[in-house]
Specification:
single chain, alpha/beta, seven-stranded mixed beta sheet, four-stranded mixed beta sheet, about 45% helix, elongated
Length: about 400
Amino acid sequence: MPFGRPQVLCDELRRALPDRPFRVRFWDGTELEPSGERDEATIIVRSPQAIAHLLLHPNELGLSRAYVSGLLAADDLDRAMPVVDHWRPRPFDRVTRLRLALAALRAMGITKPPRRPRIELPPRGRMHSIVRDRRAVRHHYDISNDFFALFLDESMTYSCAVFSRGAKTLEEAQRAKLELVCAKLGLREGERLLDIGCGWGSLVIHAAREHGARVLGITLSEPQAELARRRAEEAGVGDRVEVRVMDWRELSGETFDAIASVGMVEHVGEENIDAYAKRLRDLLRPGGRVLNHGIARLRHDMGPSGPFTQRYIFPDGATLHLSRLLLAFERAGVEVRHVEGLREDYAETLRHWAQRFDEHLDEAVRIAGRERVRAWRLYLRGSRSRFRDGDLSIFQVLGRRP
C-alpha cells in the first residue's frame, strides 16, 4: 500500500499551530518539533490510518478511534495528560482547515478506510431505557472480575475511597469509606439495607458483618452478582445477604430501613433522575435514611462526557450537577440532612488505581486485550485530572423520608 508524504502535513501543522507544547513523530520518522525549548511529550502517529480516522471524524471520536486502535500513541501518557487537559489551540479559519485537510490527504496516500475499534459500543435504542442501560452497564462491568481485581483493593470496592480520615493505604481508605456510609446511615442490628449497584459486594458484606444488617444488593451484572454471593458466603454472612440481578426500576413492593446508592447514580441520567429519587423515597419506610454517593460536574460551562468515555468506558454515563440531585430529592419529598464533597479523595483513589493497573499491564492485556487496556490507561489518568483540577467532584448526600 503506497504511503504518502507526512512532511507536507508537518509543514501545515507548523503554520497552523505556532504554539504547540508537544512533538509529533510520524510513521516514516518525520517529526514536528514543539514550539518551546522544553522536552515535551511526543505524539506518535504510527500509520496513515490514524489520519484517516481524523479525516472521517475530525473531533474527539476520530482521535479516540485512532488512539484505542493503537494507530496513535504517546511516548509517556502522564506527560501527555496536561496537553489533553489544558491545551486549547486557536480556532482555525476556513482556509486553514482546507489546507490541513488537503495536506492530510497527501500525507495519507492511498489508505484503506479504517475500521472502528472492536471494543467500541455505538449507541442503540432509547436512551436510559432498561434494555439500553443493561447493555451499557454490562459493557463496562462484564469485562472480567479478574480485570478489575488487577487494580482494586482486596475488598473489590469500585468507588471513591476516603483518605481524608487518616488512611494510608488503599485498603484502609476503602474500609474507611464503607464504614463512613454505614455510620451516616446509622445502621443498627437487624435493620434492612438496600444497596443499589452493589458491585462485587463490599458494602453488603461490611454492613452485614460489622453492623448486623440484613442486606439486599442489586446489580445488572451477573458476574458481579455471582462473585458477591460467593464472597458473602466466605465472609460468613451468606444468611444475611441476598444479591439479585435487576434494575432499580424493577424493584417495588418492598421497604427498607436504609438505602445506599454508591457509584450508581451516574448511570441514571437527566431523563430519570426525578423518577430515581421518587423510587428511593417509596422504598424507604417512614423515617428511613438514604445515602447517595455519586460523581457530579462542578462547572456549568462543562458539557457531558464525550465520545471516548461514552463509547469505550461508560456508555450513556451522565454526571449531573449536585444541585440537580438535590432538586430531585426535594421534589420526591426526601429531606436532605447532610452533604459532603470528597473530590481530593477520589483524585487520590484514581492515582492508586492507575499505578496498580500499570503494574499489571501484561495480565490486563491477556484478560481484556490491547484496545481495552489502552482505553483504561487513558481513562484512569484523565479521570484523576478532572478531580484534581476541579472539573468533577463526588458527593455523599444523606437524606431521610419524613
